[in-house]
Amino acid sequence: EAGKIFGVKKEKVPEAAEKLVAEWKEKRKELEQLKKKIAEKSAGGLEFENLRGLKVLVKEITNADAKQLQEVSMKLSSADSVIVLFGTAKEKIFVFGSAGEKAVAGGVNVGKIVASACQELGGRGGGREGLAQGTGVDADKISGVIKKIISGLK
Q1: Are 38 and 68 in contact (CB under 8 A)?
Q2: Which backbone phi and psi does 86 adopt, to 5 degrees?
Q3: Prediction pTM value
Q4: Mean pLDDT, contiguous 10-residue spans, the chain (154 residues)
Q5: Is 118 exposed, middle or buried (0-12, 13-18, 19+ CB in 10 A)?
Q6: For residues 66 and 51, what is the distance between their CA atoms, to the nearest angstrom?
Q7: According to a count of CB atoms within 10 Å of the terminal CB, is the N or C end of the chain lower?
């Protein structure tokens, strides 16, 4: 039966399976590299707002998953930054937040911010003062949640 699936003779099935797995791993690697490039390009077009002496970025990035949000955040983070990103991919919302040392020392707790945002979006999330992530499902509420976060940081 496996021979029919692979289109080879019975004795060639192990070789065909190894070849398929190798090709799959290579394609998965290529996909991750492309996702990283997309994240880097997304980061280039984002601008910070200056609030209370901190660089604040609270944005939605379409078609971004959790890993891409993390890549963007890592690329843009600094000691005085607060970043909360919302990625919408299929029917799920990914939320990733980070806050630099200066922001945390100034009282910013991105863990609480992300937990609250995810709860409002019908999901769950949380983390530490400087790093947090989560998910949600109600994409219609993202713009309101973004406004609420910015207002809370003022």
Answers
A1: yes
A2: -115, 120
A3: 0.77
A4: 85 89 90 74 76 93 87 90 91 95 95 97 96 95 95 90
A5: buried
A6: 26
A7: N
